[in-house]
Write a sequence for this structure.
């Protein structure tokens, strides 16, 4: 004679086993997006100026950007007027990469999630753009007419 507990636990364990195996197979069939090698490399970039495109003025700063697409992180620090800034870490949730291997043309748009001081999170998109004149980082993907750019050097 089977106990009432066995009658209850056997169907439940069978159900959990089937749904668990189903989820396991579903995870393995999810296609991975393959990016070119240059899109996945870790970048350490620095800047000594901010450029305001609206009025074409520049402001001296010390900025560091560390982008690690494989760990899905973007860390940055911007020091203005000699004030020390702390490194802020954001999570990269998505990436659209059209940059060429020598970083002279194209762009990478990173979708990020930032943690705010009040405990909330903000979603944003930032832009790394390569031109024949150099690399530029911007805090948004809006029109070039009204944004802040950082002229970058690779380290």
């Amino acid at each position: 004679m089977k106990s009432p507990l066995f009658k209850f636990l056997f169907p439940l364990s069978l159900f959990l086993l089937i749904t668990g195996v189903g989820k396991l197979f579903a995870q393995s069939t999810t296609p991975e997006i393959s990016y070119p090698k240059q899109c996945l490399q870790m970048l350490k970039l620095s800047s000594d100026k901010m450029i305001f495109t609206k009025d074409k003025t520049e402001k001296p700063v010390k900025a560091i950007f560390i982008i690690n697409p494989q760990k899905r992180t973007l860390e940055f620090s911007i020091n203005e007027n000699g004030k020390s800034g702390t490194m802020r870490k954001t999570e990269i949730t998505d990436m659209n990469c059209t940059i060429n291997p020598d970083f002279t043309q194209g762009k990478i748009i990173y979708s990020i999630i930032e943690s705010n001081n009040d405990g909330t999170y903000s979603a944003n998109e930032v832009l790394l753009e390569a031109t024949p004149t150099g690399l530029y980082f911007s805090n948004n993907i809006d029109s070039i007419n009204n944004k802040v750019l950082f002229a970058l050097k690779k380290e």
Observations:
- The longest strand covers residues 57-68.
- Helices lie at 4-28, 37-40.
- The first helix runs from residue 4 to 28.
